[in-house]
Amino acid sequence: MTRELSRPKRKNPILRTRLATLPPGARSRVALGLTAAAARGAFELQVCRDCQAVQYPPREACQACLSSRLPWRVQAGDGELIADTTLAHSNDLFFRERVPWRLGYVRLDCGPTVVVHMHGDVPPAPARVKVGARLDKSGQAVLIAFPSQEVPNMADDRQLREFTCDPKFRKVLVTDGKTGIGQAIVKAIIAAGADLVWVGHAEPWKKFPGFDELKAIPQVSLMPLDLTDSKSVREIAAEIGGRVDVLINTAEVHRNFGIGNRRGVEIAQAEMDVNYFGLLRLAQEFGPALRGRAADGQSNAVAWVNILSVYALANFPPHGTFSASKAAAHSLAQCLRAEMRPAGIRVINVFPGPIDHEWNQQIPPPKVTPQALATAIVRALKDGVEDVYPGDVAQEWLERWRDNPKALERELSNP
Amino acid sequence: MRRGYDDVVITCPVTVPYVRYSIRGGHWFLARALAELVKASGVAKASMDGLCVSSFTLTPDTAIGFTQHVGVSPRWLDYVPLGGASGVVCLRRASRAVQAGDADIVACIAGDTSHTDSFRLTLANFSMFARDAVYPYGAGGPNASFAFLTSYYMRTYGAERADFGKMCVAQRDNALKYSEALFKKPLTLAEYLDARPIAEPLRLFDCVMPCAGGEGFLVMRKARALDLGLPYVHILGTIERHNGFPADPIQMRGGWAVDRDDLYAQAGVSPSDIDFFQTYDDYPVISLMQIEDLGFCAKGEGPAFVRANTLTFDGSFPVNTSGGQLSVGQAGAAGGYLGMVEAVRQLTGQAEARAVKDAKVGLVSGFGMINFDRGLASGAAILGAA
User: Fold this and answer.
1) What average pLDDT does range A225-243 have in this prediction?
2) Which residues does chain A have within 8 Å of residue B200's beta carbon, measured at their own beta carbons?
3) Poorest-confidence range of B42-56, B97-111, B115-129?
4) For chain B, which terminus, N or C, has the lower number of CB atoms within 10 Å?
5) In terms of residue numbers, what domain contains B223?
């Protein structure tokens, strides 16, 4: 049975902080289909469109009928563990630092046999298991066998924690606590076991609604932080950068209208200054600090969360400049993700549908509540997912966008 | 009925001394193997008009680049990157070429170097399926894959670690009488059982040690061998099979089980006529699988067979009489030649202190290329003394 995670001891500041190593990340292009699905939390395998044979490992032609039509389809993952082993030796540095490491060989009910990492509560073979796909620290998908039933402290498993970014006992920076979203996230992350949450607020001389309630939470430490001010970001990074394990960027400026309904560029500049340049300032100051602590024991630096918008995928003209700023932030976040990958720090991009707040007053429901958004972020950290689309609207837009991006552009321009 | 090999023979078994690590390249070991063949046969390299090459560390070259490297102009050339099945497959290719007259003398060589980090790099890029679906899982290489097979075999057929230990200890005893073996110290069953774990149930002495080295032999007509005064052996029968039993959920049998009747029919012998067996022994469970699949006992009866026999060169069922890869070392593709070269030595009276008494018929089998979860290539050859 998995032992419940305990609070790590205080770090000895004299000891060397270890450098991050990564598991092998090379994959063929076709195998990246597994990664693409795992990035949004799905386990998919190629299924032949002509003969329905399920394929694994990923390949370019159906092993049964030679068809090249092999779309990726969601799999349940149920199967039988037919053999298992525990590695005491590995040729790779990442695993060498982590042996003993348990592996399994699973016959999936859908056909193929797969090599998997193992959750510690899976009994020795033969046993029923549930296989899922997760991103490893190299950012690539791997398969993991879980016990067929939920077990206590499941998330605390030593091997599983190498694939997740659980906030338990970690220190978190939420960059803006002034908004309902920021406050919901602070509460959710503390409920998930975070040790300490630094909460930024851009105008420390002003109280905002919810200020007193936040201040009263023992794990919360309020910090002056203005993402439009490089000096402010630098000072905060100098003070706490070396201790942040999870950074959640909640700061955003959201105004309505597109191009023709407003004169001048000042509002668009304000959006870009926070939504795009704010992220850039944060990334320049906090990126190196997180990378340097990626292998710092049990509570190492693990994740960076960006709250983008589903409008980042395709412009929503009634909120046109906001959409553009989020598209810019999305592009920058991809760059950040690439730069954080060598350390194994996960960059999670959240693409919510319209959130239920003042600037979406005229958007019809369903709208995402700040609490639902916060829950989705905590779940993404725990599951190790990389792209999250909270809310029914985001899910529908995602599906339309994946199906035909040009069609979605037309649909969004004809309200 | 497949055509036999008439008067095509194998001769000149040569070995390039094995070392754990070498600063040389793969080309060096292949060139030494070729030079050894020239020395052993008295045939100039220019007169060897066929060349068959197996190696993992010849990259970025293949056999063609090697021809210019060593200054030969063969009229028949083959490159057989089939790892542990290379010896059998090269013999099959070369003997048909000689039989058809496409070449008169084919030099078959296999060799690889070993640097401190070359094994890891070979594993990381071994195949598309290995890179996508095995190596990211602990990077244990074949150790992990064979740990699955071994534990499944033990659970299903009641094999004990001591059964595998008996095989390893017998091979070490054989290796002590083979001067090129890298392992020079006796191995006891207790040492085998108590060795440090690698990937349970596999422990240290279940796993081959990667090293550098080379092997080679010549294929020609009997008349030519007689002219040259070279001892030779006959090729009685051969088989190969790739990706045999793809629907089996886990590899408990190899391609040999498909073709073994064909093998014995072509050779005109039965398993009881076999005087020794050179298996491909990257792990003892694979040797056991070959003993079963090539008809010495039924599937699952391997453990009882091992308990009932002595496996040393002077035993009731001699296996891997030079020590096998487990006690000689695994010199990359040369590991696929080790058993073939040893079989020719045994059948031509060159096996010195480890000679199998009155050996007339020998069986060599090959197995290789762990592509995803199993070895894909398999082959076997039955050789007869002149």
Assistant:
1) 96
2) 85-86, 88
3) B115-129
4) N
5) 8-117+211-232
Whether A115 and B131 lie within 8 Å, measured CB to CB: no
Domain ranges of chain A: 32-161, 171-412
**A280 in B contact zone (CB under 8 Å):** no
pLDDT digits (tens, 9 = 90+) for A240-260: 999 999 999 999 999 988 998
Residue B272, Cβ neighbours under 10 Å: how many? Answer: 7
Best A59, A87, A113, A116 member to test B by mutation, with max B CBs in 10 Å, is: A87
Residues of B in contact with A27 (CB under 8 A): 131-132
Instruction: List A residues 19-58 in contact with B (Cβ-Cβ < 8 A).
Output: 23-28, 31, 56-58
- Contact flag B136-A105 (C-beta cutoff 8 Å): no
Q: Do residue B255 and residue B221 come from a single domain?
A: no
Inspect the interface and report whether the beta carbons of A26 and B138 lie closer than 8 Å: no
Mark whether B168 and B298 lie in a shared domain.
yes
Edge-to-edge strands of the sheet including A72-74? A54-55, A44-47, A72-74
Q: Was domain A171-412 assigned CATH 3.20.20.70?
A: no
Residue B242 forms contact with A (CB below 8 Å): no
Residue A375 burial by Cβ neighbours in a 10 Å radius (0-12, 13-18, 19+): middle
Cβ–Cβ < 8 Å for B171, B311: yes
Which of helix, strand or coil describes residue A387? strand
Q: Is residue B198 included in any domain, yes or no?
A: yes
> CB of B136 within 8 Å of any CB in chain A?
yes
What are A4-29's pLDDT values in tens digits? 999 888 888 888 888 999 999 999 99
pLDDT-derived band of residue A298, with 50, 70 and 90 as boundaries? confident
Q: Does B138 touch chain A (CB under 8 A)?
A: yes
Task: Please judge whether B133 and A56 are an interchain contact, meaning their C-beta atoms are less than 8 angstroms apart.
Answer: yes
Query: What pLDDT is recorded for position A415?
Result: 56
d(CA A172, CA B171): 59
Number of neighbouring beta carbons within 10 Å of residue A371? 16
Residue B386 CA to residue B304 CA, distance in Å, equals 34
Nearest to B124 by CA among A100, A27, A163: A27
Instruction: Report yes or no on B127 lying in a domain.
Output: no
B170 and chain A in contact, CB less than 8 A = no
Q: Are residues B218 and B242 in the same domain?
A: no
Residue B282 lies in a domain: yes
End-to-end CA distance of chain B: 23
> What is the domain-level CATH number for residue B174?
3.40.47.10
Q: Which residues of B are less than 8 Å from A64 in CB distance?
A: none
B39/A contact by beta carbon, under 8 A: no
Q: Based on the domain organization, do B104 and B143 belong to the same domain?
A: no
Is residue B147 domain-shared with residue B250, that is, in the same domain?
yes
Residue A7 in contact with residue A121, Cβ under 8 Å? Answer: no
Looking at the structure, tell me whether residues B188 and B273 fall in a common domain: yes
Residues B153 and B219 in one domain: no
Sheet of A246-249: strand order equals A220-224, A196-201, A171-174, A246-249, A303-307, A346-350, A387-388
> How many residue pairs from chains A and B have C-beta atoms closer than 8 A?
122
Q: What order do you get walking across the sheet with B76-79 strand by strand?
A: B76-79, B50-54, B106-112, B212-221, B8-19, B232-242, B375-385, B361-370, B276-278
The answer, for B268 touching chain A at a CB cutoff of 8 Å, is no
Domain count, chain B: 2
Residue B352 to chain A, least CA–CA distance (Å): 38
